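User: Hi! I have a protein structure encoded as tokens and I'd like to know what sequence might fold into it. I'm fairly new to this, so please keep things simple.
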């Protein structure tokens, strides 16, 4: 083969190589970089993703940055930190362009961990009506309640204010505004919205609890930016003595004494309901007491209640009539996999990657009547916090990895992954169903810095190499022809 033919073949080879390289560099155009601005906190290296990919899909876990004297309050798309700029789950967010994520840190002294409020009880005979006011600026009507609940911070200098209140009911499991006359010996619910004043540096913490009239702490859950809505319960009051036949069904628990009164008959009826909390570090939160109390109240009123079978409903009604003590007991028991083999298989069938099932629990809400088990509550109208301990005696976390725990529930034969948070040695998830729960873990590789040449630089490199090769071939041809 002469030199000319060899040269042509070499040119074709380099051309094919170039055409093969271009699609690769075009693919690099689809790569996007996520930069993390941690505002002086612990640094997080940039992440490179494919267009439209999430960090979870890429198998990456982003640890929360830390900053001494500050509390981390999440990631934002802009450093103005407006509530609409917040990224609520950075690992499941799908990015389509190069982005900078900004960490919000609040000085610890500006983090609100407890809120105490007073709620004025509604006066018997007061009529709650719907009213409306025409607002010329918006050419529309604003609807509101007459005689809304009056709520005040216990600390007059607190950096928050109550921005909205309304009397509500929870009929059908939904919040609805209450209208009508306040009756004697009834519990009423108040919808309360707490708003932080203009001091925007203040934030409600993730472990913030709200106490109304010194009772029933309410866990508001996730870190809150500027406001939080809660529901408080209060008994109606009257200056006049009660008349006629009175019915009292007193409900107590270790945290708060709440009273639920229902007219089951014309006779005086009294039954005490006691909430027994489970052992330390394995619990559903104190809201379970209120949830079950409300269910008992609804049963006595004859309302349809999900999560309690007809036989248990009748037993509760009989206990109220016969003045028998009722105990609501939460049982949280660790069980070996062989005892709940089918449930364990359901959870394992949902796992992917290197995730492992490590611990199983049976969580039961048992109603005892006169000291004897009468039946179980399988579901509540509202979700409650499920708090379980971090499993012990696990293998050490490999270097460069982060351990992520997840709680699963198995109810009616279906395994469901629950959003899980870890605080110290406790794991928390929300659920309204009680049966088998499982704890799983997976060691996720921590984010490492990636250094890729820019796409333009890659193309320039390959074009330069091709040019040099062609120049070399041309020079060879000329030298041969001399």
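Assistant: Happy to help. Inverse folding works backwards from shape to sequence: for each of the 482 positions I chose a residue that suits the local structure. Here it is:
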């Amino acid at each position: 083969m002469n030199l000319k033919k060899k040269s042509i073949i070499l040119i074709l080879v380099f051309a094919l190589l170039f055409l093969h390289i271009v699609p690769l560099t075009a693919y690099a155009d689809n790569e996007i970089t996520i930069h993390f601005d941690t505002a002086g906190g612990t640094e997080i290296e940039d992440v490179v993703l494919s267009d439209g990919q999430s960090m979870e899909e890429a198998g990456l876990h982003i640890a929360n940055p830390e900053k001494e004297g500050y509390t981390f309050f999440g990631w934002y798309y802009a450093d103005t930190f407006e509530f609409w700029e917040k990224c609520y789950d950075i690992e499941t967010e799908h990015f389509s362009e190069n982005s900078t994520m900004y960490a919000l840190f609040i000085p610890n002294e500006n983090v609100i961990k407890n809120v105490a409020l007073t709620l004025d009880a509604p006066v018997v005979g007061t009529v709650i009506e719907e009213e409306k006011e025409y607002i010329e600026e918006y050419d529309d009507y604003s609807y509101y309640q007459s005689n809304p609940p009056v709520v005040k911070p216990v600390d007059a200098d607190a950096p928050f204010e109550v921005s909205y209140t309304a009397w509500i009911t929870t009929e059908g499991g939904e919040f609805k505004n209450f209208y009508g006359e306040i009756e004697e010996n009834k519990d009423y619910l108040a919808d309360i919205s707490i708003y932080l004043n203009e001091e925007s540096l203040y934030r409600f913490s993730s472990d913030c609890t709200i106490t109304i009239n010194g009772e029933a702490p309410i866990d508001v859950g996730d870190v809150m930016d500027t406001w939080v809505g809660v529901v408080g319960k209060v008994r109606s009051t009257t200056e006049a003595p009660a008349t006629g036949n009175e019915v009292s069904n007193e409900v107590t628990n270790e945290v708060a004494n709440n009273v639920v009164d229902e007219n089951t008959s014309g006779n005086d009826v009294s039954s005490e309901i006691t909430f027994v909390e489970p052992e330390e570090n394995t619990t559903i939160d104190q809201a379970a007491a209120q949830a079950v109390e409300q269910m008992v109240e609804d049963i006595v009123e004859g309302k349809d209640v999900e999560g309690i079978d007809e036989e248990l409903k009748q037993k509760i009604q009989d206990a109220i009539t016969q003045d028998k003590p009722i105990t609501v007991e939460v049982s949280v028991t660790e069980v070996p996999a062989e005892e709940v083999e089918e449930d364990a298989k359901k959870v394992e069938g949902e796992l992917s990657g290197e995730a492992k099932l490590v611990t199983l629990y049976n969580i039961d809400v048992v109603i005892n009547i006169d000291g004897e088990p009468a039946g179980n509550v399988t579901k509540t109208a509202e979700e409650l916090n499920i708090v379980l301990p971090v499993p012990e005696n696990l293998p050490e976390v490999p270097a460069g990895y982060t351990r992520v725990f997840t709680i699963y529930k198995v109810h009616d034969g279906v395994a469901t992954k629950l959003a899980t948070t870890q605080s110290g040695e406790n794991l928390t998830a929300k659920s309204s169903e009680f049966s088998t729960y499982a704890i799983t873990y997976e060691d996720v590789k921590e984010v490492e810095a990636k250094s890729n040449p820019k796409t333009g630089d890659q193309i320039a490199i390959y074009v330069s190499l091709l040019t040099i090769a062609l120049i070399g071939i041309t020079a060879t041809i000329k030298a041969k022809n001399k």
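A useful reference point when you look it over: Residues 3-28+453-481 form one domain. Feel free to ask if any position seems puzzling.
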